[in-house]
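Here is one chain, start to finish.
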Amino acid sequence: MASPTLRICLPIIVISALAIGLNSFLNFGNFERSFNELERSRIDFLVNDLANNLETGLALGLPLRQLANAQAAIEFELRADAEIISISVFDEAGAAAFHAGQPLPLNQLPARWRLPDKAWQLIERDAQIIGVRLVTAIGADAGGLVLRYTRRHHDQVMQAMGRNLLQASIVTLLLTALATLLGIGRLLQRAP
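Its structure:
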């Protein structure tokens, strides 16, 4: 039969373990949501900036393929961020007009990357894909811009955070269990 100290401490330790585990789970979820929003806003800013530059040229009446600075602009952004896999500018038919980074099969964008929305996002196993439609000054469809961003950094940060939370939870639980055992044991020793 277990000692009175253990019978009293065991439920306290189990409840503490559940509370610590739940707290860690919620903290991980909050961190992931905040990190995703931060990462998404950074990528959105880049995509929107590139799209605005391209649409400025389109507003001047230039055809998409004649935008002289488009290739240089996407190559600059590709070199500036090692996490970018590729940047593609495509025409209304989905053919790549400008491209930098990992090559596209047949120089054509996959159909799943040509969604009808003005701005869209896809999450694939290895990449986050952000796209925007390009429109002329009169609102006509002129193609789009697609940026592929690696998930490697995201996954590494999430794994590191998960490990840190697990380690902190274990240490907290061990300290809580020790403090509970010592405190209850001391209290029971003093009891008449």
